[in-house]
Design brief:
The chain is α/β, with parallel strands linked by helices and 268 residues long. It contains eight helices and 15 strands. The longest helix has 14 residues. It is globular, with a radius of gyration of 19 Å. The protein has a six-stranded mixed β-sheet. A five-stranded mixed β-sheet has the order 5-6-3-4-7, with helices on one face.
């Protein structure tokens, strides 16, 4: 039976400094999660079994299956011996749109484009974002530094990615974790949609590298600024620039690097 809890205590044998001894360690779970629409499986992802309703909504939004959370009539989380099914029923014409772009995904942890049948689909343009807000360099650093203490699962396991949304007036509005970086961002998208939070009002903060899919998903959220502790790919930079997204990365204690739309960041 696959686990439906996000972490598990596992026995290990430690070999260090010439010594050998047994101990316990908390590790993140990895569970097959099937995304099911109107009775048909659309995707199977490997994910941390936590905040799965947020994941169901966020994945549906960032994959273009629905345009808003209201397009999903119901969500049922159904555990089984093989994993967890996220059973969703769609409203109105969403079923037809789903049939038109239906594809199957079956891939490793957080894989965002496995199974795509055309090259064009893999690098589909990101949504063009609006003007958004300006942020100071100090606010960028504050956003990045506020994330680690809130990564509850990662503090225990040291093995999970996080995606968070930060606002200058509220700090961290939402943070989601997962073994897959795409999954963490999908969960964040779902949480923001459920709470009616406007993406243009804050910053998406990532603990992972910034790939094309991360830019595409962020553009669906409507966020105009991405900040990551890791580096972006060159294609992600080009896509972010085309979408009008400010992309700052390689954020460390001494600063960060800006790759696109630096006009949204001011000194101070």
């Amino acid at each position: 039976m696959f686990a439906t809890t996000p972490i598990r205590n596992v026995h290990r044998e430690i070999w260090r400094n010439g010594l050998r001894y047994g101990a316990e360690r908390l590790l993140p779970e990895e569970t097959p999660v099937a995304v099911v629409y109107d009775g048909g499986t659309y995707a199977v992802m490997m994910a941390t079994p936590d905040d799965l309703e947020d994941f169901a909504i966020g994945f549906s939004l960032t994959e273009g299956v629905v345009r808003s959370a209201a397009d999903i009539k119901s969500i049922d989380l159904v555990p089984s011996r093989d994993g967890v099914e996220l059973r969703m029923w769609l409203a109105g014409g969403n079923s037809q749109r789903l049939r038109e772009r239906r594809r199957r995904l079956a891939g490793p942890t957080g894989c965002g484009i496995c199974g795509i049948e055309s090259l064009a689909e893999s690098i589909r343009p990101a949504n063009i974002v609006g003007h958004g807000r300006r942020f100071s360099a100090g606010q960028i650093m504050e956003a990045v530094q506020s994330i680690p203490p809130l990564q509850k699962l990662n503090i225990e396991t040291r093995a999970l990615h996080a995606a968070a949304f930060w606002q200058s007036c509220r700090g961290v509005v939402a943070l989601r974790e997962d073994v897959g970086r795409h999954n963490a961002l999908d969960k964040l998208a779902g949480a923001l949609s459920r709470d009616n939070v406007r993406g243009s009002d804050g910053i998406v903060v990532l603990t992972s590298r910034v790939s094309v899919e991360m830019v595409q998903k962020t553009s669906v959220i409507g966020a105009t600024v991405i900040v990551s502790v890791s580096a972006p790919t060159a294609l992600a930079v080009r896509l972010a620039n085309d979408a009008g997204i400010t992309l700052a990365a390689i954020a460390r204690a001494d600063g960060f690097e800006v790759f696109t739309r630096g006009d949204r960041i001011s000194p101070g």
